[in-house]
């Protein structure tokens, strides 16, 4: 077996409409797929070559200790200001490392997200 890329990252949601309002309204993502099924709901946001998915399904519950997706932003200071203005919970940062700037926030279900900006010369 050879893994060639990360196809998608996903978070469980307890309320798809509320989650979409956050991901579209606060983070500015564009929904690329929205599919309701019997007993479930799946939404996708394509970002660059990857996909961020949200799902509401029996037995899949959000956790603040779950996987974290790092979203690269074009203007870190502006992103921090927008998050603060929207009263989004900040769980870490903003902080600077030798290679980047990061801010950890929580989505409406408490799932962690990192807003990230690489410093020049780091890919």
Describe this structure in words.
With 123 residues, the protein is of the alpha/beta class. It has one domain (9-118): 2,3-Dihydroxybiphenyl 1,2-Dioxygenase, domain 1. Helices cover 17% and strands 42% of the residues. β3 (40-47) and β4 form a beta hairpin. It is globular, with a radius of gyration of 15 Å. The protein starts with 8 loop residues before the first strand and ends in a 5-residue tail after the last strand.
Cα distance, first to last residue?
26 Å
Return residue spans where pLDDT drops below 50 for at least 5 consecutive residues: none
Strand order of the largest sheet: 1-4-3-2
Number of helices: 2
Count of individual beta strands: 8
Kindly estimate the percentage of residues that lie in beta strands according to DSSP.
Answer: 35-45%
Q: Average the pLDDT over all residues and give the rounded result.
A: 93
Largest sheet: 4 strands, mixed
Structural classification? alpha/beta
Corresponding CATH superfamily: 2,3-Dihydroxybiphenyl 1,2-Dioxygenase, domain 1
CATH class: Alpha Beta
CATH architecture: Roll
- Domains, number: 1
Radius of gyration over alpha carbons? Answer: 15 Å
Order of helices and strands: EHEEEEHEEE
- CATH fold type: 2,3-Dihydroxybiphenyl 1,2-Dioxygenase, domain 1
Question: What percentage of residues falls in helices of 4 or more residues?
Answer: 10-25%
The shape is globular
């Amino acid at each position: 077996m050879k893994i060639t890329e990360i196809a998608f990252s996903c978070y469980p949601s307890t309320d798809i409409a509320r989650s979409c309002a956050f991901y579209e309204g606060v983070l500015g993502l564009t929904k690329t797929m929205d599919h309701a099924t019997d007993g479930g709901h799946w939404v996708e946001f394509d970002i660059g070559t990857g996909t961020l998915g949200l799902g509401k399904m029996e037995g899949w519950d959000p956790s603040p200790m779950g996987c974290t997706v790092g979203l690269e932003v074009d203007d870190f200071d502006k992103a921090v200001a927008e998050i603060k203005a929207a009263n989004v919970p900040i769980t870490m940062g903003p902080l600077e490392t030798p290679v980047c700037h990061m801010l950890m926030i929580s989505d409406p279900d408490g799932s962690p997200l990192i807003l990230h900006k690489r410093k020049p010369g780091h890919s």
